[in-house]
Target: Small ribosomal subunit biogenesis GTPase RsgA
Amino acid sequence: MFNDLSLLGWHDGLAEQLPDLPGGAVAARVARVDRGAAEVIAADGTHQARFGARVRRAAAADPLALPCVGDWVALARLDLSSSQGGRYELAEVLPRRTAFVRGGVSRDSRGGLSGDGQGQVLAANVDVVFVAEPSMHATDFADLGRIERLVALAWESGARPVVLVTKADLFGDLPNRGLDDLLADVAAAAPGVDVHPVCSFTGDGVDLVRAHLGPSGTAVVLGPSGAGKSTLVNALAGAEVMETQQVRAADGRGRHTTVHRQLIPLPGGGLVIDTPGIRRVGLYEMSEGVGLVFSDIEELAEDCRFSDCRHRSEPGCAVLAAVESGELPERRLESWNRLQREAAWMARRTDARLRAEETRKWKTIHKQMRGMSRP
Ligand SMILES: Nc1nc2c(ncn2[C@@H]2O[C@H](COP(=O)(O)OP(=O)(O)OP(=O)(O)O)[C@@H](O)[C@H]2O)c(=O)[nH]1
Ligand SMILES: [Mg+2]
Ligand SMILES: [Zn+2]
Model:
């Protein structure tokens, strides 16, 4: 029971957003979404609530409006007279403070990734995005490119990214490469972002993770399947709240053990959202996210001779000079190029969609006006 909604992350500003519904409405937080219905936590406990007409209409017009884990919602109680107790309807989604939106991805003809223009809200009203990346995959080290993508999306969401290098105990030191070297590489891929190694088995680093939550903060854990996200959530909760599973030996990638996104209130305060593994994520509409992940490149670029330098072959390019000198890893410049292109493509696509919507709207209005002026 959450008699004190502030433990769920409720704050005063939200009360003003709660709509006046005819039968009265209570606030609740979405813990899990299933087709057309949600599990919500209200002050008096957990309820199942089906989506109301307003919510369904909004979601039909814009998939991003679909209720999502972490959302604050207005809950209407139906059938007050019914002896079976209340049935609840999710009447409205309150405005989101932050939203982690991923773009859909598809493979283009050259085998590269490109966005398909579809966005999906993975979690709402989140304060911290934990980007979980295992220290070791089957044969390879942490995937820095995936970290860059997730951190860019995290910045864009309005939440604060934190990178967790999970399963730190599995990192086998090589003669000339230790865990510290990996952590340095990860830190360089996410400037200005805290990076923590974690081992959920021994508990090493788990307290540092918890410290990011504070008394009532909400975090979401994102990362590939088998990264140990659910194991970490269990370590934070101090109980087996999520099912975890051995990684498949064959490819080390693991099956998807977690198949639902789930909001879990932690006993010591704060909330965490566990998610199914994501292998690939597309960028969604970006304003600053990519720039923040590549602040080192942006800073170098200030010294390029030309202000519109694209760092390809221009003379006097400070970025290329940094690659040449080894100061900037070439991988990182390539990654920046890729994400820049993707963000630009996404922006063009959004513009086109907005234009199309605008045209449609005006067509409807003109049609209505013609209808009205008819005798
Ligand atoms: N050695 C080691 N193994 C770990 C650690 N954390 C998790 N594992 C193991 O890694 C496997 C996958 O862990 P999960 O927590 O199920 O991974 P997940 O990220 O939730 O995976 P999905 O739910 O499929 O996205 C399990 O066998 C865990 O026991 C760790 O810190 N060290
Ligand atoms: Mg899991
Ligand atoms: Zn340049």
In short: The CA atoms of residues 135 and 141 lie 6 Å apart.
